[in-house]
Amino acid sequence: MNAPFPTVIIEALSPVIDGGKFPIKRITGEWVVIEATIFKEGHDIVRAVVKWRSSASVPWQESPMEAMGNDRWKGSFQVQEIGLTEYTIEAWGDAFESWLEEVEEKIDGGITDFSVEVLEGAVLVRLAMERSLIHQGGSQKYQSPSDLEKLESYALRLEKGTDLSLQELNAIIADEPLLSIMRQWPDRSFSTCYEPSLTVRVDRLRANFAAWYEFFPRSAKGSATHASTFRDCLARIDDAKAMGFDVIYFPPIHPIGITGRKGRNNSLICLPDDPGVPYAIGGAAGGHCEIEPTLGTLADFEWLLKEIKERGMELALDFALNCSPDHPYVTNHPEWFFHRPDGSIKYAENPPKKYEDVFPLNFNIDSWQELWNELRDVLMTWAERGVRIFRIDNPHTKPVAFWQWVIAQVQKKYPDTIFLSEAFTRSPMMKVLAKVGFTQSYTYFSWRNTKQELEEYFTELTQTEMKNYFRPHLFPNTPDILPYYLQEGGRPAFLIRAVLASTLSSLYGIYSGFELCENTPVLGREDYADSEKYQLKERDWNAPGNIKAWITRLNQIRKTYSALQTTNNLQFCFCNNASIIFYLKRSENNRDHLLIAVNLDPFHAQSGVVEVPLHELGLSYDASYRIEDLLSGESYYWKGASNFISLNPQTHPAHIFKIS
Amino acid sequence: MNAPFPTVIIEALSPVIDGGKFPIKRITGEWVVIEATIFKEGHDIVRAVVKWRSSASVPWQESPMEAMGNDRWKGSFQVQEIGLTEYTIEAWGDAFESWLEEVEEKIDGGITDFSVEVLEGAVLVRLAMERSLIHQGGSQKYQSPSDLEKLESYALRLEKGTDLSLQELNAIIADEPLLSIMRQWPDRSFSTCYEPSLTVRVDRLRANFAAWYEFFPRSAKGSATHASTFRDCLARIDDAKAMGFDVIYFPPIHPIGITGRKGRNNSLICLPDDPGVPYAIGGAAGGHCEIEPTLGTLADFEWLLKEIKERGMELALDFALNCSPDHPYVTNHPEWFFHRPDGSIKYAENPPKKYEDVFPLNFNIDSWQELWNELRDVLMTWAERGVRIFRIDNPHTKPVAFWQWVIAQVQKKYPDTIFLSEAFTRSPMMKVLAKVGFTQSYTYFSWRNTKQELEEYFTELTQTEMKNYFRPHLFPNTPDILPYYLQEGGRPAFLIRAVLASTLSSLYGIYSGFELCENTPVLGREDYADSEKYQLKERDWNAPGNIKAWITRLNQIRKTYSALQTTNNLQFCFCNNASIIFYLKRSENNRDHLLIAVNLDPFHAQSGVVEVPLHELGLSYDASYRIEDLLSGESYYWKGASNFISLNPQTHPAHIFKIS
């Protein structure tokens, strides 16, 4: 603000998260479109610019905003640098344009004496000349002498006063070059800046467009008797790459504790060969910065990381703030844990469930800063080793303030770091974790199966304020979640959920076994029977009935069509069958929009009439057009909005239509 | 906040204006009901209180908030002191209640070994004992020794450890007195306060419930040839009192300039007897702190003010920031005005309209502080003289920042001061003036005539965020506005607009002449012909056809029924005739709800079926009940929701029903 008090009101900015407390999120190269209500007392013409800078040490860039009527203004800028970009609005009453309007209104009102008005105009032109000269001195911008000359000539004409004819005055106020030169040198000495400025967190492309593949490295070769090591993982990674996945995600790879180690199926009895739960971190071989010896050495890890990167893929690591009773922290920092009156350390519980192999950390302690710094250093260590994606286990059981701090710390040094929040809890906590810094978030997708549920949830995710800070990462399954829908619906259910996950969000992932349609549960629960959390898993990675070809095709389509590379371009359309969901994914360049229809019923063929959003597609109400199903390769001739489709869950539960 | 970092998330507070930038408004004795989303990581039981204080020098008061589900909480407090009251929310994870829940869940889960849990409970009880003792030392609260004794006995029982039976444990955790005592001494050392705190502006009753009567004191006696003085005003004031008005509002009473003085009907030719426009302030007799000599002296003014107060009424003065060319400021502070290149001072214009008798002030000058201080001192002078209501003329043509500052300055010294914003402009400016401090606001009511217009506008005013900061003051006419509806609709239109103004808001006013149904316009415009802004006005204050009895009855009903003493208790109900508007005004004590039906058509009788909101009235769907029209005194027997009404605009254009 240049004025000693706010001279222009700038309010109701959009988008803005909680009044500007938290940044909005964008991907590098994306546009930030800002709207605001901007006005001033009296009759002055207001002008406004949006200003942005990627750090306080670089000068502001700016671009003019446009009035949309009713005091509402719009402006935009493109974000480039990964990290935080600051932005604000500057607005002012523009003396010259106000003068133009006043003179126009007086001419329209039949006034004929402009002897003083033209002198006022001349003064304003001469003041602009002075401002341009000052700028030249500072060599910030170059004002061509010809422009100066032109302004001088306008000033001289206006200074003719009563000798200036009305016709000549009319010509001057309608003169585009004059307005254009004057707009370069506005008087902003009484301008107002919106305060405090807002921020946008800019992430790299993979923060918003990626397909993840999760597997336990110890099960890589699919042997129930011989644990696989990092050196055994290449086949699995190549298979994931062939299916079109970009990110390999490993559950924790750190030493697993012995004390309290769980046996198969969460048994308290642990046999000598039982490998333990990877989330019970810490043992003789070390804690969160070390490698579980049965997986290999740090050198093996680094070799594998290099192999993954050479394939154009990336590795995501799990960050689970659990300590086994054997974790070095327990001996070195007993004050970081919860102590009970009997002298024991409290293990994790979710009554009546007990996790005897895991001690949670106590964040509300006097020496909290020491603990927080240590945890930050763990992340820094892995970032230093080249890991730039962290999937955070259960962030909703640690203080939100800790995440806000630690994510900022890591991203300050490694701006390209991505954090995925694995929070499955009530909505306000899910949202606030995204607001305070998580790049991506797990969702309720796993439990949204009907058309109404999906439409409501994805409308909230993509059409409300959430679209500006919450990037939904869709997992149809996880090691902890085998949804009833997959248990009951069998192979067709896997086909259906794969289409939904890969097209409803540009971010999705599967936990290995999904492609094999594994769906044997612990009876009556959403847990996997014989979960590999507790044991090595025997698998034929090419077992009959697998849906690898289907997933491969989906990932190919995602990579080919930009409409599937972003999430908020979703629009639900009408289908008269409640089992068929029908939606449009718009492409930014207005070409290659996709229309997607999915039969949500895994048991029966369903057919119905869909309403094609012709207007959005640029088609007339009676247009004839050819559509091509990218999944089957088949084409159809359609006409107008209403068209018939039929989807068999066994053979083709979905269409992904491209309009030709 | 006591914790070193926020431990509890407190967000989405309601009501809140622009993220807390501006206070909400309440009347002394009213309740502030706050809702917020409050939650914490993990499984701790959260507790929260709302805290408030009327100044930083008094201790916080607090009352517990209640959980409403889905992390949403509600709390309330009653405001008392006029001025600003600060409030916030404090929340914490409650160790003892979390312990209670954990033990309950374990019992429910079939766990039987509580040997350590009971010791944990004992520790928590003993910690509460310590906290209570500390408080006693500071003598802030008295903890009865019997409570201490009880806690000691609970602790001893829990310390029995394995000797405590499950039955005994069950009894302890279900023990109401234990919970009640423990709730007095919660551990709030890791609590979080919502920051920054919010404020509520508390006004006196008349800020929200009043009927205003505006007249030009110089026309008090209704003579076109002899100007009335303050000493002539008593009859007019008594008449207004008899009609039930509470506030007398005078246009500016300051010396009127001679230079550029306007003649009748805004003529540039001013005859010797023309009194001039009261808004062209300043002359030989002084400026904004002095009295126009033809009205009397300051002593006369003070006498009149006393007379008004003795009648239980109050005087509102106009604060118009215009200066005539003869204003002392023009000589003493030429730098406060706009200067033109020809050496002249710029008079006010709204092209092509010219106000040659008025110089506007220039707020954007280097010596702005001097100007602002002077204007504040004008208000202070009148406040000192006993005026506590100011109607501010055209605030939307002065900087909003000035109003925010000057209102705060005046209310700091005179907290009971009321400011009415006479802004007729676009909606964002109307709203921001209310946000920054105006107690009441003029509205678009004057131009809202149809049922749809009225329902939409009053729904916005009373059901959206506006209800918390914008108090609509309804004027069916002003010296500047003779709406076409009144011009065309004649006497029935005046009856109709009087009912609407006096019942749609608890604040309304009329400009004198309304009660006489004066409606001769300048042809084709909303201006009064022969406006008394420019001349003395001849009037018979009891002219035939006047509607004084109607207005008197309306004001009587307003004073009798609390439902009409507040504005936001409005609810529109259905009537199947588009010309009849039908609404419920709820009373706070759930007695004396009023149902109001108005025929908006001034030309024809209209009838229709209304739907009585039986549920809101506590009546069953088939109830029989008697309703009494407070306007006519007639009673009707109605049954169920649908009932017939018929309204003749000539004789009874409205019903105000009381349900018996």
Draw up the topology in text.
Two copies of one chain form a homodimer.
Chain A: E1 9-14, E2 24-27, E3 31-39, E4 45-53, E5 61-64, E6 66-69, E7 72-78, E8 83-94, H1 95-108, H2 115-137, H3 145-158, H4 166-173, H5 176-182, E9 192-193, E10 198-203, E11 210-214, H6 234-243, E12 247-250, H7 298-310, E13 314-319, E14 322-323, H8 328-332, E15 348-350, E16 353-355, E17 359-360, H9 368-384, E18 389-393, H10 400-413, E19 418-422, H11 427-436, E20 440-441, H12 451-463, H13 484-504, E21 507-511, H14 548-560, E22 570-573, E23 580-585, E24 594-599, E25 606-611, H15 614-617, E26 624-629, E27 635-639, E28 642-647, E29 654-659
Parallel strand pairs in A: 2-10, 11-12, 11-21, 12-13, 13-18, 18-19, 19-20
Antiparallel strand pairs in A: 1-3, 3-7, 4-5, 4-8, 6-7, 8-9, 8-10, 14-17, 15-16, 22-23, 23-24, 24-29, 25-28, 26-27, 26-29
